[in-house]
Each structure stands twice: as structure tokens, then as C-alpha cells.
Amino acid sequence: MDFDPYELSIHEDPYPLFRDLRENHPILYSESKDFWVVSRYEDVRSVLQDGETFASGQGTVPDGFLPSKPMMIVEDAPYHTHLRAAVSWRFRPRRLRSFEAVIEKVSGELLDAIDPTAETDLVQAYCDPLPVAIVTELLGIGFEDREAFKVHASRIIHPGGREGEEVMQAQNWIYEYIERMLPSREAQPGDDLISSLIHPPAGVPKLNQDELLGFCSMLLIAGPETTTNAFSNALWVLDREPELRSALARDASGIELAVEEFLRFESPAPGLSRVTTRDVELCGRTLPKGSRVHMLFASANRDESVFPGADRVDARRYPNPHLAFGLGVHFCLGSRLARLELRIGLAQFLKRFPSFALIPERWERLPSEVARGFVKLPFRPTGGASTA
Ligand code: HEM
Asked: How many domains are there within the chain?
């Protein structure tokens, strides 16, 4: 069986295939992609937890793409440990508390701008601009440049038919923009993340310029994209679950557990890979050193042995040890911020549009190899007739 988890024809509903993999081919070598696919929860977990054997340094997407500046997501210990120690203090709960008000304000403004009588694309109006606004706020990037960042970041994440050179140009645009910000942050530090990484507190390692550029551009590229997809996936699930939608609109206290379930049920990062640093046994097979192993998070998150009734949405599921943010040393650094955005953003949306309805058959899935979400999600605010 030759399996390509990124084959677009399975995008609409890949889960029956994932189930077949878990049941009949828990480890599978894909000749066309030249990687081993693991699909069961325990196997994905064991790969994620052994960063020494399953390394990230040769890239974590199947084609092994590596950026030109250091980025922790594709580094291994001890360098990864150093990079992470330099920034992780900025992502602690106390530091993020001030973002609650910012998220509320931005989401309120975006919702105000939606015409309640017209058909609107939710990705464009809400799922996309909210996370971009939050990450640019975190970095202290002016409102006027947000759109340009979005355009360049999207050229990198979704190169489509673009040539490598065009992708490189977009990447350089981001590096150069951040580089231009550095002298003023050096001289006059503000509350933003860049200032605080240039002037870290005592005992926290300081990043050099290349590391700083790599980190900031990674946040701009990876953070908003995944969160946008998580939003669109959640809204798509809510549209299919009208009772849950009404219950959360009436009482948002269940939103925390519901968000975890949306992340499990439709994982925005469906899979990533590692490369083995030695010969290793996995699922009864011996994989030679240098093998690429692809972990299907989206399949692990539907594994019945861990999540009873895995193909059903259970918004009260607890515990919910999903792997949507990964696990181990590379566990998503932005998970707290993403969760905050999703909880506040979805609760506010449901308060404003408690009976929204997506327009059937009009949504468009992201034609992406590395992300799961939507590029278009047209909806009617009241659930009534379209005025479009
Ligand atoms: C729902 C939204 C998000 C999802 C599903 C997600 C998913 C992930 C996953 C699966 C990883 C692990 C990568 C690996 O093991 O190779 C990761 C790492 C990372 N994420 Fe997220 N992410 C989200 C939002 C964010 C946000 C908002 C930020 C920052 C503003 C962020 C920053 C990072 C960073 C810096 C890493 C690398 C950590 C390391 O290598 O130590 N993420 N993310």
C-alpha cells in the first residue's frame, strides 16, 4: 500500500483511511514520499517523547524544508534547549494575561464590522484577521503593516505553484522588516516581545540577531496560520452540531473543554515528521538510521483506545490528552495564547451570532500539505435566508 497522507482527494474526510491505517498498517512505508507513517496514539506519542532518537534538525515537513535562519522548531538539543530557554518565559500565563483584553477588543471590532444582514466569508472577516492582529500586537508591529505580513507569510506557508525564489523573497521581506525594527527597540525598549528578547531579564540567555529574526519570523508564519485554521475548523464543527452551538451561545462556561475537543476532532496541524538518529525498532519494524518518520496527529487524535467515541464530538470530554499541539520538547510554545484566542474568540462570536449557519457546499478547504482548515467559510449571521 502506497500512502500519501497529503493526497488532496482524501482531504474532505481522511478519517476512514486513518482508521484503516491504525487497524491494519500501524506502521507503513510510503515509497512515493520515502517516509514511514505512524498513526496510532501510543506510537505517535513515543516518537514525540524521544527527541534524541527522532530528531527535528532535518526538517519536520516531509520534504525536509529548512529555513535560512535558526528556528527552534527544526533544531535539536542542546541548541534547541538554548533557543527555547531564551523565549519561553515570555509565554508564561502571567505574561499573557494582558492579552485577554486585547483579544476581546480586536474580536469585538471584527464582529462589529460584520454586516448582520449579509452573507459573509468568516475566514476573511474573522478567523484570519484575529490571530494576525494578536501576533503582530505581541511583536509590537504597527496596524498598517499587518496585511502585508499576512500576504508574505501566506506565500511561505502555501507556496502553491510559486517558485522557490518567490518564497525566499517573501521570507526575506519578513526578515528585513524585523531587522529594521531592531535599532529602535534596542535604544527604546517597549512592552513588546522583540524589546524584551533584546533586553532579557537576568539569567535568561540572549538571542543573537539571526536567532531573533528566525524566531520572530517563525511566530509570524506559523502562529496565526494554525490558529486561523483552528478557528475555521471549530466553526465548521459548531455548524454541524446545532445543539452544542446553542448551549455554548447560552452559557460559555463550557468553552474551555469544547475548544480542546475541536482541536482533537479537527487538528489544524494534521502531521509532522522526524528523522531517526540511529537504527530503531518501532511497531515491530526496524527502521534504519536516517529514516523519516511521519506522525499522523490527526489520526492519533481519533484513536478509540484513548478517546472512546473518537468520531463523535463530545464537548465535555475530560481528560482530553490530544496531540494537536504536539508533545515533548517541541510542545507548542504558543498553545496558551492560541487557547486564549480560541476561547475568547469563539465565545464572543457565538454571543453575537448564536444561530449562525454556514452555507452548505460553499466552503473551501485549504489545499495544503501541512495544515487542515478552510480558505473560505461563507455564513449567514442569522441562519436565515441569504441576502447575497
Ligand atoms: C491552534 C493553534 C496552534 C496549533 C494547532 C499549533 C501546533 C503546534 C505543533 C503541533 C507544534 C509542535 C511541532 C513539533 O513537534 O515539531 C508547535 C510548535 C510551536 N508552536 Fe504552535 N500551534 C498553534 C499556535 C501557535 C501560536 C499562536 C504560536 C505563537 C504565537 C505558536 C508557536 C509555536 C512555536 C514557537 C513552536 C516550536 C516549539 C519548539 O520547537 O520548541 N504556535 N505548534
From this structure: 1
Q: Which residues of 257-277 are buried (b: 16+ CB within 10 A; e: fewer)?
A: bbbbbbbbbbbbbbbbbbbbb
pTM score over 0.90: yes
What three-state secondary structure class fits 28? strand
How far does residue 177's CA lie from ligand 1's centre (Å)?
22
The whole domain housing 104 covers 8-380
Strand 35-38 with 285-287, pairing: unpaired
DSSP 8-state symbol, 366: -
**222 CA from centroid of ligand 1 (Å):** 7
What CATH number did the domain enclosing 108 receive?
A: 1.10.630.10
pLDDT for 142 beyond 50: yes
In a domain, 387, yes or no: no
Ligand 1 binding site (Cβ under 6 Å of any ligand atom): 56, 60, 72-73, 84, 135, 218-219, 222-223, 226-227, 230, 268-269, 272, 324-326, 330, 332-334, 337-338
| 358 bridge partner residues | 379
